[in-house]
Design a protein that fits this description.
With 283 residues, the protein is an alpha+beta fold. The protein has six helices and ten strands, in the order βαααβββββαααββββ.
Length: 283
């Protein structure tokens, strides 16, 4: 075992990140905005110069703007090829501007012994660099296969029960066959999402879609269905990754209304669950 359970509490940063209008447009296209949209309802996310339309930013762009980075040096010597993305969450403290500079500080918030592996949890807090105004907080967990078994705490048992009843709302989006090639331009150049040879070595017939791209497609559905397409109303979004998605699959987002939010789940084209235990809050 090469993991260091004592790394909990390790802080990295602050690190800075600057972005502009083009970055926001590219992210929106990367998560399917504007596709098959004859009404132009998503022009505010996909253009910067349409008449009577002011450009805005999709809230889930927080996952690529987070500048804190993941510093594994304190966590230990871990085989990144055996690492799986377990959970992802964001909380928006204000609407993300179209351009700016932020500073992010990342903390290792938990390392749990799951026997056959270890779960490593991180939280990053991002503020606007000039005013120090809170912008967003991101949360993520990674499952390090083969790194458990040291006799540590297994961690909390998080249970989100998705209702058996029919959803109150449901949206289906079609991904493109080249969706991963487009989304990777946001920064994640892992060849698992682009190189057929690398993907086969990882046990896949072809390159798979980024989990955070599926997250972005799902966030669009939540934004439009529950927030009236207004990013200022988008509060928080937490979910667990449960199955990889292939580019070209249709994604169906199911939502069950709750007080001030919704539970949600995303299904792949064959009906399997790809995002599970989703909890959403909005204003």
């Amino acid at each position: 075992m090469a993991i260091n359970p004592d790394a909990v509490g390790t802080v990295t940063g602050p690190k800075s990140r600057t972005w502009d209008s083009k970055d926001c447009l590219l992210y929106a296209l990367g998560v399917g905005a504007g596709a098959a949209d004859p009404t132009g309802a998503e022009l505010e996310f996909t253009t910067e110069n349409s008449k009577d339309v002011t450009q805005r930013v999709l809230p889930t762009m927080a996952v690529v703007l987070n500048a804190g980075g993941l510093d594994f040096s304190a966590v230990g010597q871990i085989n990144l090829f055996l690492m799986l993305h377990g959970e992802q969450g964001i909380t928006l403290h204000r609407e993300i501007p179209v351009a700016g500079t932020l500073e992010s500080t990342t903390t290792v918030t938990g390392i749990w012994d799951k026997g056959k592996g270890a779960v490593i949890e991180f939280e990053s807090v991002s503020v606007l660099a000039d005013t120090k105004e809170p912008l967003f907080t991101t949360r993520m967990s990674l499952f390090a296969r083969g790194e458990g078994g040291w006799g540590g705490d297994r961690g909390p048992n998080k249970v989100v029960e998705i209702p058996a009843a029919a959803p109150d709302r449901q949206v289906t989006y079609q991904t493109r066959t080249d969706q991963a090639l487009l989304y990777r331009l946001n920064g994640d150049r892992n060849p698992l999402h682009s190189d057929p040879t690398f993907a086969k070595a990882g046990g896949f017939d072809k390159p798979i879609l980024h989990g955070l791209c599926t997250y972005g497609f799902t966030g669009r559905a939540l934004l439009h269905e529950l927030c009236g397409s207004d990013p200022a109303r988008f509060g928080s979004m937490d979910v667990r990754f449960s199955s990889p998605v292939m580019p070209g699959e249709a994604l169906t987002v199911k939502m069950w209304d709750t007080d001030g939010g919704a539970l949600f789940q995303t299904l792949g084209q064959d009906g399997r669950t790809v995002l599970d235990a989703g909890v959403f809050r909005f204003a």
